[in-house]
Task: structure prediction
Amino acid sequence: MNEAVLQVCTMKDPLCAQGIEHKLLALPGVHHAHTNAVNGTTTVHYDEGAVTLAELEAVIDDCGLRCHGESLPLHYGGQTVHSRPAAAEHDHAVADHDAMAQPVMEHAVGEHATHDMVHDHAPAEAMDHAAHGGHAGMTMADMARDMRNRFLVSLVLTIPIFLYSPLFTRLFDIDLPIPFGLDPDVLAFVLTTVVVIYGGKPFFVGARNGLKAGVLNMSVLVSLSVLAGYIFSVAATFLFEGEVFYEAAAMLVTFVLFGHWMEMRARSGTNQAIEKLLTLAPPMARVERDGKEIEIPTDDVQVGDILVVRPGDKIPVDGEVVSGSSNVNESAITGESRPVKKEVGDTVISATINHTGSFKFRATKVGADTTLSQIVKLVQSAQSSKAPAQRLADRAAHYLVLVAVFGGLITFLVWYFIAGADLVIAMTFAITVVVITCPDALGLATPTAVMVGTGLGADHGILFKDAEALEGPAHLDAVVFDKTGTLTVGEPQVVELAVAGNPVSEEGLLRLTAAAESGSEHPLAEAILKSAGERGLNDARADSFEAIPGHGLRAEVDGRSVLIGNRRLMDREGINLNGLRGKAAEMASAGRTVVHVAVDGEAAGLIAIADAVRPSARAAIKQLQELGIEPVMLTGDNEATAKQVAAELGIETVIAEVLPGDKAAKVKELQGNGQRVGMVGDGINDAPALAQADVGFAIGAGTDVAVETADVVLMKSNPADVVTAIEISKATLRKMKQNLGWAAGYNLTAIPVAAGAFAWAGITLRPEIGALAMSGSSIIVAFNATLLKRADLTEISD
Result:
């Protein structure tokens, strides 16, 4: 099953997203479709043999919402503006009309970056659209400016409309003189016509697109309200005697434009993390071709190319170092602030920054296959997915539109035929009900929180795969950790040295042992050599080497006889351990592998080797316990070793000696006790347990299978990030509840007030005030979501 993240332009209204989803799900081979009106993307899971990407794009186009294909980072052949000749005629028709467009390049960072990208990458067709006043190539900043311009023009024209209106005369008992003796209604007609046509155009186009997609959206309600007031006033001016309310239609347009301008500015702050990701890749790469070093566009790099990286360069694509060495800052991808040493054979990641050294590497992943592209796709997919609460909100929003239309009609009938109010009053109440019931805030309540939450996670090297994965950690009762590679480093390390005092010192013991082990490929030998190298004790070399199967080895170093192995070897060779025997037993009881060393026939010392505990693991366990979440260790190691590590970490619940195939069953047992369980792992044998858990956390350095199976990916391979993920989840869930509570409360309170239920107490609303309240509600929801960025998160370095 394939997944595509499609960039959709001209989508402003959350209800338009529902129309796209319904149309896509009707196609054979489409399993899931999630549309996010906030970031303008649609994520589709489909069978490639049953439906093509072009057919998916055509369905979106048929809804009146221009699709620009898959969205990938710039410079990877994934510019979100790209030509699709088959849809050219349709694109011209749509692009010329829609001022509500979600921008094609909305993820660009800053106006200057956007300007460069549009002019450097947009095809002539899209440039032609922009040049002729269309919105197909506009950014979010462009769209906000367009809304601002329409608002300012409408505001300038609305002021005189209001000053010469019957409403102004009644409110202030002032009858202003009309210049040149013009009829005030005719003057209001001319000015309001400009406001309705120019200022209201985005809503009329949005209404057309909504109806084309098969949904009644916010633009339909606004258009219905504006046109009802405008047409009634025109008829009262030229066809029959009656009071007009041009000011209501003009102010309605003006206030909704102002609200959408402010909303766009607030929403533009919800997706800064993905904006940064989309522009991280360098535009050019330095490649060796035919023995020469040349610069080419990153998009043209091929797998197998040799690339040259100099100090300060960004790494264009993923690859493997073939010569040279340096320190690379990978914080943009993993969130790890400390530079990582890169030598021959090490992998490098696209969009990371080289520090002081120079090196060459072979490209292994380019374009959509790079780590950066996969991260962007994962984050976009998560942001386009729907939180469980959003499904309920979507249904409520759909019914609220029907309530708005029928509520407005019923309000008019009640006031005109039952209450006996005049036509203008009945129309005023009806239009106010239609406007104020718009479910825009309800549709934005959870998508804005999801976008900020997933973006916040990406900033900290935590990738949530979808909205459910973002919500899940907040509800966990227990977190199960695989020991090796998760709570521990995952490779043998020298953790303790003990010397007899004679014939060598501690440094001498490690130096001689490392020299003797230099010819061995055993994992324990690698641990000893690494420890010696870190201390600068790897200068000696063995003159002879003899392996003793099942026991150890014998070597000559600097003219001294060195015997290394287990206790059986010492006993066989008649080496008296003296006081070291008790120390060796103590080390072994702690779950450590003990290497015995004798020099010139005398016991020299002991080297304890173990899989060391990650420095961040202790703090992570403590933080989980403070959150009321039970940490559990799950391991295949023997019980003594497992309990020793657990005691060091402060974990009380230990499940040891578990076969790889039984890990999922152990997670299921915990779930059977009524607990919601998270599982943290890094290996292939962890994949079934990750899938069984309510939330699976994959250590980013683990296997592809584990990462693919999990719900949350911890890019820094730091178990402490489990705590950060839980904190982000809890904070996001709070914002979702706050937004949904505000949006629902607003509608429940506003509808009866707008319908005139409290008119007896002098409490009424006019359409323009209703429009301002409706827009303000959406602004509050978007702004509240951006406050997630200020969440107090735990930072624990490894």
